[in-house]
Design brief:
By secondary structure, this protein is α+β, with helices and mostly antiparallel strands. The chain is 16% helix and 36% strand. It has a single domain, classed as 2,3-Dihydroxybiphenyl 1,2-Dioxygenase, domain 1 (Roll). It contains five helices and 16 strands. The radius of gyration is 19 Å and the shape is globular.
Length: 314
């Protein structure tokens, strides 16, 4: 029973229209699912991914009318998006600068070429050369050339004030492996510890930065809400039993219709999710037209008119 890698990451935006323009427009990601937060249907939940809506490529956003995040520890602090090669990073550096997005020069970090930038709300992002490992599914309705498109997520970086409890959690509960550490470029004297799952590689790494001098973060626009890890569909109930067996307070089974979820907070309060690959985003609409209209899970369908009336068109 192993986690396979990053499944998706969910962040917070206060402006869905501008968010859509940045991620679907400038970054060329496909909006594969336009839906609402199932626990608060007044809020959009937007899913951006590759051309197929593949597990491991989903960067999603809740739209909440909240002020900006107060940055700090006890939080997920940087989301990497994978591309293939120096030529792709050079393309993106030029494209982002042309759009007046502040970017850092391409540099090598943890053995990978990396380009750091932020979205308009301060969401911290990186483009990382993954060496072309794994399948790629380009999206045909963007002006970003197929060979330069974003391939998926990972690694994901989180900040904690001390390593011990998080290490015990991810190794003991999730069977992740600490494989190396490297100097933290954003915290003098600090280290970032790399934990991998499954077959490893950029799409299957959690980077834990130890940053004891920071105050706890306060979530807001530009913050990350949670990160989800991929699990085989057949293992889903075994993960429920594992949590119960060690006395962890979790959400219990949650059916999100397009995948099944299981939530728990690690010792520093960061929300982790386990998510299955299936049924997939084409469970309720043709793959060719995913994301073009508002999609609702069956238990919300009878409220469609009221929900649509409360949403601002993208």
């Amino acid at each position: 029973m192993q986690l396979l890698g990053i499944h998706h990451l969910t962040a917070i935006s206060a402006d869905a229209k501008a968010n859509h323009a940045f991620y679907a427009g400038l970054l060329g990601m496909r909006l594969v699912k336009k839906t609402v937060n199932q626990d608060d249907t007044s809020a959009y939940h937007l899913f951006y991914a590759d051309g197929e809506g593949s597990p491991g490529s989903d960067l999603t956003f809740f739209e909440f009318p909240v002020p900006r995040e107060r940055r700090g520890t006890h939080s997920i602090t940087r989301t990497a998006l994978r591309v293939n090669g120096l030529a792709a990073l050079t393309y993106w550096e030029e494209r982002l600068r042309s759009a007046r997005v502040a970017v850092s020069p391409v540099r090598e970090l943890d053995g990978r070429l990396t380009l750091d930038f932020e979205d308009p709300e301060g969401q911290r992002l990186s483009l990382v050369d993954d060496g072309g490992k794994g399948a790629a599914h380009a999206w045909g309705r963007t002006d970003v050339p197929a060979e330069f498109q974003i391939r998926g997520l990972g690694p994901i970086r989180m900040s904690v004030p001390e390593l011990r409890r998080t290490k015990l959690f991810v190794e003991g509960i999730y069977d992740m492996r600490e494989v190396r550490d490297f100097e933290n470029p954003e915290y003098k004297g600090g280290r970032i510890h790399v934990f991998e799952m499954g077959e490893g590689g950029a799409s299957a790494e959690l980077h834990v930065a130890v940053e004891p001098g920071f105050q706890p973060a306060v979530q807001g626009a530009g913050a990350v809400h949670h990160v989800a890890f991929r699990a085989n569909d057949a293992d889903y109930m075994a993960w429920v039993e594992r949590y119960n067996g060690v006395g962890l307070r979790s959400s219990g089974p949650v059916d999100r219709f397009w995948f099944r979820s299981l939530y728990v907070r690690e010792p520093n309060g960061i929300l982790f999710e386990i998510a299955t690959d299936g049924p997939g985003f084409d469970a309720d609409e043709p793959k060719e037209t995913m994301g073009e209209s508002l999609s609702l899970p069956p238990f919300l369908e009878h409220r469609r008119a009221a929900i649509e009336a409360g949403l601002t068109p993208l």
